[in-house]
Write a structure and sequence with these properties.
The structure holds two protein chains of two kinds. By secondary structure, chain A is an all-alpha fold. Helices cover 71% and strands 1% of the residues of chain A. Chain A is built from 29 helices and four strands. A two-stranded antiparallel sheet of chain A has the order 1-2. Chain A has a two-stranded antiparallel sheet with strand order 3-4. In chain A, a hairpin with a 2-residue loop joins strand 3 and strand 4. In chain A, helix 2 packs across helix 9 and helix 17 packs antiparallel against helix 22. The longest helix of chain A has 37 residues. The radius of gyration of chain A is 27 Å and the shape is globular. Chain A starts with a helix and ends with a helix. The C terminus of chain A is likely disordered. In chain B, 67% of the residues are buried. Chain B is globular and about 70 Å long. Chain B contains 15 helices and 14 strands. Chain B is α/β, with parallel strands linked by helices. The chains are: A mainly alpha, B alpha/beta. At the A-B interface, helix 1, helix 9, helix 10, helix 11 and helix 15 of A face helix 4, helix 6, strand 7, helix 9 and helix 10 of B.
Chain lengths: 701, 465
């Protein structure tokens, strides 16, 4: 009798896991489809799905269109068009770009696309107005095929579509010439063209197809969400990556099975863990804390444990394969004399600005400028791990949160001095970072990124809730005191700003020294050629552990200072995984290889809204705040649009906007100098050019 | 008891709420049958309610150096989460509607101390920028006070440091705790304290086995589940209620569904579910209950009261569900209370009646009464001091009484009296045919429990006019 009951329970759990599993399967299928046909690890898949879901919701629910016209517009028409646009405008030019570069571009799109559609469609999520499916009464009519658990119409349609899609897409790849051509274009566009196939056309079709599927998936899975929110779609993608990873991103049947399996696994845990923990109390903490994180644990486990993923060798960053990796492109053509002058002028301007800030700035500007400097410290951790190490880490927010929570726990609750607690937080974060690097030590670039993303979500779902991490009220009362060092009280905003500025200088110098240190040079060697580096005794594993540890420690220190600055950890608004993506996008946009890029990213994060979106800068120019046009303030969503799209340049200019701009200025100056030299040479008594200019011109060439 | 046959004459059913679920634990103090004229707790403030002579309340005297105050106007800001609210419900706009409707009413009668009341700034904190926006308000120093109901109240400490009066509801209970300049509608709550209301509604509904379920990501949600557990442990035997199922670790958005959890409830014989979900989560729960043949199980919704569109759009699913409110239910007899004015002036503005606009209205009244009580030479400190002397504030019958002289700190499980309300009062409604219906007597819409006595007892139906 008991056995029958258990079998029934297992069967029911399997059925209960099928609907959410279908959601994961649909997204995993789309993910695999995009990867197979474009070679892009498309983290923007959820954003593409969101676009169609929003348009469907808007047309069907808000405007009252019928199901068919809404579906035609949002999925059949819009989704492929979006795919074609992305291919034509972005990905066609990135076919030969390394996977990590296209990953960053996809992250940028994941941030930009939802905000674009929100702005264009004037869409705002409304609670209780649940999205509707593509069949009437989709959520309220149920069918019970086995007499154990019933499915709604929406769920049955989604399951049917998933199975049909898997079969037809598998057939497309296996039996049709087009399927082979799509894979060939991903493998080698040049070779494909030599065989008489129009690679551009095939690639465009591939993007249209995968985008169509994204749109369909978006409309099908939307009814499972209570409100349409881009974060939810992104979270689903993160989980679905685990399902896709089961098949190494190429097997559609395995992606389908992986998605369903994940849903079923969660349902089984949800069914049996509470019962077992009633009988075995030691299981209770696992039930309470680990169960919500199962998807992320599975994702991490798949990435770390599936041997084929560990063995996969791909370029780890846009500069990989070059031996030795070049310094920032502008550095090669800089004129040392002019650089010195620029630095002196820059330092003078900096001191001038500091004087203005310390004498004129009000509380708001002091807050924002301090935040700029603090975030610059956090962003220097990305400089280390991405700019120097060449890895994309998507869990810097979690490392920073460790620092913040450490200050809360040690300083607020246990009475430690705040700065001591901050240093302790940095050390703890560093240790966590180093430990995290161990299981992912042999992964290639993309999988490092996804593993770190899984860790960020695990931290968010599990760790924050522990009383010894987030306290008893993780979202609210995590207050943090300002530091007091002997007679120096940093309670005032100005004093704390000065302290943060000193810390930033120290960390910046430390990062510069690290670049030139043995570890830094080992990292450069590994980025150039890991095998060659190993042949001269450099351990890639040790180096990766070190770089992750240092990066995490810097992030932890920055997070601690951010908490001290705001006098509260404010986890929800500072350190969420989705917010961490925005950090990365900002830093790579401005330049992940220089401290200047980190500082510029910090400034953009803190000041962009007030200076530009609120029209403050325009008010200064007009010298009258009253004359600021009514257009202002501009929606903060534009921040995500602009910087999300800004990340697109990473694939072609991994050095970032700052270095790229510097390089172009230098090139212009050099060209001008060359022209002037030529003119001089043509004139009687003229020389063949300025000696100081010549080497620069040569370098530029 | 079938959910569709829930007796409306059983005066009260009820329980708590989420987000605003803090209210479950929030208390209200005062005596039964308090007249609105006495409600604010200070005589002069109370009398203002009946001084609507068309010449305004209070006396004009020129004052200078008070932020946001000119000879013509008293300016306020509304600071809340607008279009970036990921939960999707109306906060900023609804609070603004309620405050402005209240000001329209008072201004139509001549204003306050010879001045018009105006909302000069409406600030969206974009979810994550509350602290910066709060600093901007303190720095500009051109508003007298701030009406604020943010999702993340990171700026409350700065507003408190600058001694800016803040009127809020209970969503930022942690940040408001201990701040004498921040006035919560129902005083600072203890969300996880046991509450008789958690058991009374199931008992009235004839239920014997309750479930409590909430999100792991929200401490308020977890605390609410803890409150239900503590309530059953303390009074379960008295009320004849046992705990069938609890879960305070559901992932937000319920991406994996809620099938196994509802199955566990079914197997435990649960006949009443207390949710600490948002509206969307509650809908998902309802769908799963229906799927598993448990549509007769009663569900208490934490949020969504006065959201007529929500109730109508999901009428079938929500049929018979119960919601609680800590402002006077719209369905009660409005006579003799500010509800009459609220409904009139909201209609005048063409604004939609919502729970949060009700909150905005009462917050505006508290500001008004505080300024009135401070006298014609008012400033921020005087208003803070005057408001903190209100011991029986009811907002003209719109809330149960609050004692601001001692309710800035939350009560505790061990000591629910010192900082807690003398009475814990709620209004309860049910959803019938897609519309809200009052549970209980329209003349006595409040259900109150005396807090002094920790023993299990029946509540009293009450009215605060």
């Amino acid at each position: 009798m008991l056995a029958v009951s258990v079998v029934t329970d297992v069967f029911r759990a399997v059925l209960q896991g099928a609907p959410p599993g279908t959601v994961y399967a649909l997204v995993a299928l789309g993910f695999v489809l995009a990867y197979k046909t474009s070679g892009v690890f498309n983290l923007a898949f959820g954003a593409q799905a969101y676009v169609s879901a929003v348009v469907y919701f808007k047309t069907h629910v808000e405007w009252g269109w019928g199901i068919v016209p809404s579906l035609l517009v949002s999925v059949v028409l819009l989704a492929p068009l979006l795919g074609l646009l992305l291919e034509w405008a972005i990905f066609r030019h990135l076919r030969t770009a390394p996977p990590v570069a296209t990953l960053v571009v996809a992250i940028g799109l994941a941030l930009a696309l939802p905000n674009i559609v929100d702005l264009v469609m004037n869409f705002q999520a409304l609670t209780g107005r649940a999205p509707q499916g593509i069949v009437p009464d989709g959520n309220s009519v149920f069918y019970d095929p086995f007499g154990v658990y019933s499915f709604s119409r929406n769920e049955l349609v989604a399951m049917g579509v998933a199975v049909v899609a898997m079969a037809s897409l598998a057939a497309l790849f296996r039996f049709s010439a087009l399927g082979t051509q799509m894979r060939a274009v991903v493998e080698s566009p040049r070779m494909t063209e030599l065989n008489g196939i129009a690679a551009d056309r095939v690639s465009a079709f591939a993007w249209a197809l995968s985008s169509l599927f994204a749109g369909l998936a978006g409309v099908l899975i939307a009814p499972r969400f209570n409100t349409l929110a881009p974060n939810e779609f992104f979270n689903i993608v993160v989980v679905a990556v685990a399902a896709a990873a089961v098949g190494r991103l190429v097997s559609l049947p395995r992606a389908l099975a992986g998605g369903l399996g994940l849903g079923i696994l969660i349902a089984l845990f949800s069914t049996f863990l509470p019962r077992w923990s009633d009988q075995h109390t030691w299981l209770a903490p696992i039930q309470e804390n680990v169960a919500p994180a199962i998807p992320f644990l599975v994702l991490f486990g798949v990435i770390v444990l599936v041997p084929s993923l560990r063995r996969e060798v791909s370029a780890s960053d846009p500069l990989a394969g070059v031996d030795p990796p070049p310094v920032g492109t502008a550095k090669g053509i800089e004129d040392p004399r002019r650089t010195m002058i620029t630095r002196l002028v820059g330092t003078a301007v900096l001191f001038g600005l500091a004087a203005v800030v310390f004498t004129q700035a009000d509380a708001v500007w002091l807050f924002l400028i301090t935040q700029t400097l603090v975030l610059s410290i956090v962003f220097l951790s990305i400089t280390v791990v991405t700019g120097l190490g060449g890895y994309i880490s998507l869990c810097q927010g979690a490392f920073a949160a460790i620092g913040g929570f450490a200050v809360f726990q040690l300083a607020e609750l246990r009475g430690w001095p705040s700065l001591t607690a901050a240093v302790a937080g940095a050390v703890i974060a560093g240790i966590v970072g180093a430990i995290l690097a161990l299981p992912i030590r042999r992964l290639s670039g993309i999988w490092v990124a996804i593993a770190t993303l899984a860790f960020a979500y695990f931290f968010d779902a599990v760790m924050v809730k522990f009383s010894w991490v987030g306290g008893s009220s993780a979202q609210a009362a995590t207050r943090v005191p300002r530091p007091l060092i002997g007679a120096w009280d940093f309670a005032s905003d100005k004093a704390f700003l000065a302290l943060v500025a000193v810390v930033l200088v120290v960390v910046s110098v430390g990062v510069s020294l690290l670049t030139r240190s043995t570890t830094g040079r080992q990292l450069q060697a590994i980025r150039g050629s890991e095998v060659a580096a190993q042949s001269i005794g450099i351990s890639p594993v040790r180096t990766r552990v070190v770089v992750f540890g240092i990066s995490a420690a810097i992030a932890g220190l920055g997070g601690a200072l951010l908490a001290i600055h705001q006098e509260n950890v404010n986890y929800g608004s500072n350190f969420s995984p989705f917010g961490g993506l925005f950090w990365l996008v900002l830093v790579v946009t401005f330049g992940a290889r220089s401290t200047g890029g980190a500082v510029a990213a910090g400034a953009a994060f803190s000041l962009f809204d007030r200076l530009l979106l609120q029209g403050t800068a325009l008010g200064w120019i007009l010298r009258d705040a009253e004359r600021i046009p009514e257009l202002f303030p501009i929606s903060p969503k534009w921040r995500f649009v602009l910087f999300g799209l800004g990340a697109l340049q990473f694939a072609r200019h991994p050095e970032g906007v700052i270095d790229m701009t510097k390089k172009r200025l230098l090139e212009k100056r050099t060209a001008k100098a060359e022209r002037a030299g030529a003119d001089d040479a043509g004139r009687p008594g003229g020389t063949e050019g300025d000696d100081a200019v010549r080497p620069v011109a040569e370098a530029a060439r | 008891m079938s959910r569709k046959n829930l007796s409306l004459s059983s005066r009260v059913l009820g329980t708590f709420l989420v987000g605003a679920l803090a209210l479950a634990a929030c208390g209200n103090s005062g005596d039964d049958d308090v007249d609105a004229a006495d409600a604010p707790g200070t005589t002069e403030a109370a009398e203002s309610g009946s001084e609507d002579s068309g010449e305004g309340s209070g006396e004009f005297q020129a004052i200078s150096g008070v932020p946001g105050v000119t000879d013509d106007e008293i300016s306020f800001a509304v600071l809340s989460t607008g279009e970036s609210n990921p939960l999707g419900y109306c906060l900023l706009a609804c609070i603004e509607d309620g405050v402005k409707a209240y000001f329209d009413w008072r201004n139509s009668e001549g204003g306050l101390h010879g001045r018009d009341l105006v909302v000069s700034k409406v600030v969206d904190d974009e979810l994550g920028n509350n602290q910066v926006k709060a600093l901007e308000l303190t720095e500009d120093s051109d508003v007298f006070g701030v009406f604020s109901v943010p999702l993340i109240a990171s700026g409350f400490a700065d507003l408190a440091s600058a001694r800016v009066p803040v009127w809020t509801n209970v969503v930022a209970a942690s940040e408001s705790a201990g701040q004498e300049t921040i006035f919560q509608l129902s005083g600072t709550p203890c969300i996880k304290c046991p509450a008789m209301s958690n058991l009374y509604l199931p008992k009235q509904a004839g239920a014997t086995t309750v479930a409590a379920i909430g999100y792991g990501v929200s401490q308020a949600s977890k605390d609410q589940v803890a409150s239900v557990i503590a309530s059953v442990e303390k009074w379960g035997d008295d009320a004849g209620i046992e705990l069938g199922y609890t879960n305070d670790d559901m992932p937000y958005g319920l991406p994996n569904g809620i099938g196994p959890e509802v199955t566990a409830m079914k197997e435990a014989g649960v006949d009443y579910v207390i949710t600490a979900f948002d509206q969307g989560g509650a809908l998902a729960l309802e769908q799963e209950l229906e799927r598993q043949g448990m549509s007769d199980v009663l569900v208490q919704l934490p949020q969504g009261y006065a959201d007529a569109e929500f109730a109508a759009a999901n009428a079938d699913l929500l049929e018979g569900d119960i919601l609680s409110t800590y402002v006077r239910p719209l369905e009660a007899n409005p006579e003799g209370t500010q509800m009459e004015h609220y409904l009139h002036w909201m209609e005048e503005r063409g604004a939609t009646v919502t729970e949060y606009s009700l909150h905005g209205w009462v917050m505006a009244d508290l500001a008004y009464q505080g300024i009135l009580a401070a006298g014609p030479q008012f400033d921020r400190e005087a208003v803070i001091e005057a408001t903190n002397q209100f011991t029986d504030y009811t907002g003209g019958g719109m809330t149960a009484p609050v004692d601001y002289s001692r309710q800035h700190n939350p009560p505790t499980i061990d000591d629910p009296v010192t900082n807690g309300p003398a009475q814990r009062c709620f209004g309860y409604v049910t959803i019938t045919g897609g519309e809200f219906e009052l549970i209980g007597d329209p003349e006595k819409p409040w259900t109150c429990w005396d807090q002094a006595d920790g023993e299990w007892h029946e509540p009293t139906a009450t009215n605060f006019e």
